């Protein structure tokens, strides 16, 4: 570790030369092998004398010999580029599988802590291209403008996936079809685009802005060593949870919620307060929701679980109780019960895009 760089380089050249002799002994002449061995000894002798300049010169001669007797690889540039790409892909897949996974917030159940996809309908035209670029970088906002060119009736609004991460909608009418960068739910909820709607020529079908959901990194590593804590924002799979329908193509969706109760905890909701084991919850994130200040409204009671201020629920072993910070608009454990331990993916760690108010560590 403490050797000079020129010495390390010379040792490396010697190893390559000895490897070449071993691998190509049957193809190299006796004279070539003798020449290589002689040059190897000259490099070693220069290093032994601690002759920096001499070592450098003899190493260059050995390097020239190696290049002269090493057969060129066919399509070497392509091979190297493909190798680099494959290594990068393997590293990325490894990181995603075991350490950090990107995740997109799809709904508004965690607002205002984390934003889902939000539509902003307007009658105004889109701003100039410079402001559109700034809005996209800062807010993750893109602008849509769908105008009917003829008499149209909407027949279907379906989802289209691109690269498994970007969601588009296909608005299919009886005379035209449109592809829009917004999920079908947002077109229905915020832009009132439904099958059966009829539009005249020149009439706007959907116009305005769509803010993409916050993009977060999920820490998949730490839960291998520590148990999830109350108050964590965590991601989990919803397979085998009654009441949550699986997508025929993508499978069970991933949800992101706040973990408000761990195994053995006794929960009760007396709006806006969440009680854990008989006392108001003390975690920062939960207390912020309970304060009901700003855009936070506190915790609302559920249906199947915690349906009134007197009902309690004891979380079973290997289960976690998940609730959205936007409690009044969140489909969570109050409806379908605890999240099984094996469904937990990891802890929400960092909002990496867009670069708005939410950028940074998740609390």
Annotation keywords:
single chain; 363 residues; alpha+beta; Umud Fragment, subunit A; 3 domains; 8-stranded antiparallel sheet; 4-stranded antiparallel sheet; 8 helices; 19 strands; 28% strand; elongated
Task: Describe the model.
- By secondary structure, the chain is an alpha+beta fold.
- The protein has three domains: 5-69; 118-211, no CATH class; 215-361, Umud Fragment, subunit A.
- It is built from eight helices and 19 strands.
Strand content: 25-35%
Low-pLDDT windows of residues = none
Q: CATH first level of the largest domain: which class?
A: Mainly Beta
The tally of helices reads: 8
Ends distance: 43 Å
From the coordinates shown, what is the CATH architecture of the largest domain?
Answer: Ribbon
Instruction: State the share of residues found in helices, binned by percent.
Output: 25-40%
Report the strand count.
Answer: 19
How many domains is the backbone divided into? Answer: 3
| Element-by-element helix/strand order | HHHHEEHEEEEHEEEEEEEEHEEHEEE
Spell out the blueprint of helices and strands.
Blueprint lengths: L4 H19 L6 H19 L3 H18 L6 H23 L1 E5 L13 E4 L7 H11 L1 E7 L4 E11 L3 E8 L3 E4 L3 H6 L8 E2 L4 E8 L3 E5 L13 E5 L16 E8 L4 E5 L2 E4 L2 E2 L3 H7 L21 E3 L4 E5 L9 H4 L2 E2 L3 E10 L6 E2 L2
Antiparallel strand pairs: 1-9, 2-8, 3-8, 4-5, 4-7, 5-6, 9-18, 10-11, 10-18, 11-16, 12-13, 12-15, 13-14, 16-17, 18-19
